[in-house]
Specification:
It comes from Micromonospora musae. This is Ribonuclease Y. InterPro entries: HD/PDEase_dom (IPR003607), HD_domain (IPR006674), HDIG_dom (IPR006675), KH_dom (IPR004087), KH_dom_type_1 (IPR004088), KH_dom_type_1_sf (IPR036612), Ribonuclease_Y (IPR017705), RNase_Y_N (IPR022711). GO terms for molecular function: hydrolase activity; RNA binding; RNA endonuclease activity. There is one protein chain. The chain is mainly alpha-helical. Among the domains are: about 280-500, Orthogonal Bundle (Hypothetical protein af1432), CATH 1.10.3210; about 505-585, Alpha-Beta Plaits (2-Layer Sandwich). The chain is built from 15 helices and eight strands. The chain has helices at about 5-35, 40-215, 220-270, 285-295, 300-305, 325-345, 350-375, 385-390, 405-420, 425-435, 450-460, 465-470, 480-495, 505-520, 550-565; strands at about 280, 310, 320-325, 395-400, 400, 525-530, 535-540, 575-580. Strand 6 (about 525-530) and strand 7 (about 535-540) form a beta hairpin. Helix 12 packs across helix 13 (about 480-495). The radius of gyration is 57 Å and the shape is elongated. The termini are far apart.
Length: about 575
């Protein structure tokens, strides 16, 4: 039953109760009137009034009955409408149930297709993972085979060294036996020599007395005269011997030094082509330039503000240029832009997120490169801050040569030289490896990289030998130790060998022209030839205008002017040639 039906029923009951009450009151009044006197006018008037009231009550009852009939008809209509509404609701519930069943069936179908697709994707991922694992296993197997071969080679070398050591021990034992026998023979010979010396002393005394008698000179006077004669002759012979020894030492030293340097460079076997950093990023299309710039340039401004790298976008097809003096920051910017281009979402917030990821990735790459270089050189104990600074040199170049690779190569060359000279190999390799550590901070700290590197090494606990070798490798400080000298030599070998460094053709040609102009502008110069890619210059002078002393002065002046005006890798040798010719004709 609805609320409307309930209200109608309550109204009908109330009206019924009112009618019943009115009828009861009328009947009671009639009974009272029947018992009164009929001739009383008041009674008659009261009766008429009661009859009128009764008629009014009957009319009210009739109206109530009609209202009840109307209410009943309205209730019937409401019941009909409720029945219709129930039928519609039932139909709607049936339709909703049908649509729910259809939706469930469709959801089951979609879910089944999703399960099938997921299984197919999972199978593809498992296949790709299996292939990747097989490739990793193949790489690991190859690496294992190479390591096993290296272990076998090292074992063979160790066996060979052990055999040579055994042979050396045997030779030393045999030599010790020979020395014992020689010692016994020398003892017997000493005894015989003592006896002979006593006889010679007696004969010498007799001869001296005879000479004094014949020459008329005392022994002291004869000794003085003899000593003076022998002293003069010895001085002359000593001077000749010293001159010969010095000449032989110069020739031998130069030849041995050349041999040591050549042997060290050959044993290093470094790359012939130096690497160079090219800060150009290739794009998949020119439309990507507009996305990099962004609306009213907001993306490019956000990129330059976050990374500190200038982004140059010109008419070059499908390429942009990154410019920054700090190589590490430039690499972080390049990697950030590369990730943004691959991702496709370029906006200021995304630029900051990708920049943090790229910076962490570059830091990990730098540290890994520094650790690999330390392992290759054989240095184990070093301060962690120095490892971080060494890693930054992975992206630093000098005349196109990677600085970190230059340090590794310099350390190997210095180690070979130290081994040839029987010096402290680990100390010299450490000095050579750390000699350019200051280049990691030359963009942040004022001063020469040699002095900066020496301060860093001293700050992080390196020995004074290493510190002095670092600060003296460019002659800012005069070298005082053999470590400093070998560090200079190995640095020159690594930077000056063919193919190690390179420069642009225009700068190279300008340098050669300037060298020839400097030498050709001096007085008395006839011809100038730049040789060996500008590493040597031959100056031909007119012999009638320049003498030997003037040739030496000219060579020194040309070398000094080249040092002051030009920048070049390695060193340049200046040779002044003065030739005199006399020609006669026989007729």
């Amino acid at each position: 039953m609805s609320a409307f039906d309930t209200v109608l029923l309550v109204v009908v009951l109330i009206l019924t109760l009112v009618v019943v009450g009115a009828l009861t009151v009328g009947l009671r009044t009639l009974r009272q009137l029947g018992g009164a006197r009929p001739a009383d006018p008041a009674f008659i008037a009261e009766k008429d009034r009661q009859e009128q009231s009764l008629a009014a009550l009957r009319n009210a009852a009739d109206e109530a009955n009609s209202t009840i009939d109307v209410a009943k008809s309205a209730a019937a209509a409401a019941r009909a409408e409720a029945a219709a509404a129930k039928a519609e609701a039932k139909a709607a519930r049936a339709e909703a149930r049908r649509m729910l069943d259809d939706a469930r069936a469709e959801a089951d179908t979609v879910l089944e297709r999703a399960h099938k697709q997921a299984e197919a994707d999972a199978e593809q991922l498992r296949t790709a993972a299996r292939r990747g694992g097989e490739r990793e296993v193949a790489v690991l197997a190859a690496t294992t085979r190479e390591q096993a071969a290296e272990v076998d080679r090292r074992a063979a070398r160790m066996d060979e060294r052990e055999r040579l050591h055994t042979e050396e021990v045997e030779r030393l034992a045999e030599r010790e036996r020979q020395l014992s026998a020689a010692s016994a023979a020398l003892a017997a010979r000493d005894a015989a020599l003592d006896q002979r010396e006593a006889g010679l002393a007696e004969a010498e005394l007799h001869r001296r007395r005879e000479l004094e008698r014949v020459a008329g000179l005392t022994a002291e006077a004869a000794r003085t005269e003899l000593i003076e004669a022998i002293e003069g002759q010895a001085k002359r012979e000593a001077a000749l011997l010293v001159r010969d020894i010095e000449a032989d030492a110069r020739g031998t030293a130069e030849q041995r030094a050349r041999h040591i340097v050549v042997d060290a460079i050959q044993r290093v076997a470094s790359e012939q082509t130096a690497e160079s950093v090219v800060s150009v990023l290739h794009l998949p299309g020119d439309e990507m330039k507009g996305r990099i710039i962004g609306r009213e340039g907001r993306n490019i401004r956000a990129f330059e503000s976050v990374t500190g790298v200038n982004l140059i976008i010109d008419d070059t097809p499908e390429a942009v240029l990154l410019s920054c003096f700090d190589p590490v920051r430039r690499e972080v910017g390049r990697l950030t832009l590369e990730k943004l281009v691959l991702d496709g979402r370029i906006h200021p917030h995304r630029i900051e997120e990708v920049y943090d990821l790229a910076r962490q990735e570059v830091e990990q790459l730098c540290r890994r490169a520094a650790e690999d270089a330390l392992v290759e050189v054989g240095i184990t104990e070093i301060h962690p801050e120095l490892i971080t600074l060494l890693g930054r040199l992975r992206y630093r170049t000098s005349y196109g040569q990677n600085v970190l690779k230059h340090l590794v190569e310099t350390a190997h060359i210095a180690g070979v030289m130290a081994a040839e000279l029987r010096l402290d190999v680990p100390l010299i390799k450490r000095s050579a490896f750390l000699h350019d550590i200051g280049k990691a901070l030359t963009h942040e700290v004022e001063g020469s990289h040699a002095i900066i590197g020496a301060d860093l090494a001293r700050k992080y606990g390196e020995s004074e030998e290493v510190v002095h070798a670092i600060e003296a490798h460019h002659n800012e400080v005069q070298p005082q130790t053999i470590e400093a000298v070998l560090t200079q030599a190995s640095d020159a070998c690594s930077g000056g060998r063919p193919g190690a460094r390179r420069e642009s053709l225009e700068a190279y040609v300008k340098r050669l022209e300037r060298i020839e102009e400097i030498a050709g502008g001096k007085g008395g110069v006839e011809k100038v030839f730049a040789m060996q890619a500008g590493r040597e210059i031959r100056v031909m002078v007119k012999p009638e205008h320049v003498d030997d002393i003037g040739a030496a002065v000219l060579a020194r002046d040309v070398a000094k002017q080249i040092e002051e005006e030009l920048t070049y890798p390695g060193q340049i040798r200046v040779t002044v040639v003065r030739e005199s010719r006399v020609t006669e004709i026989a007729r």
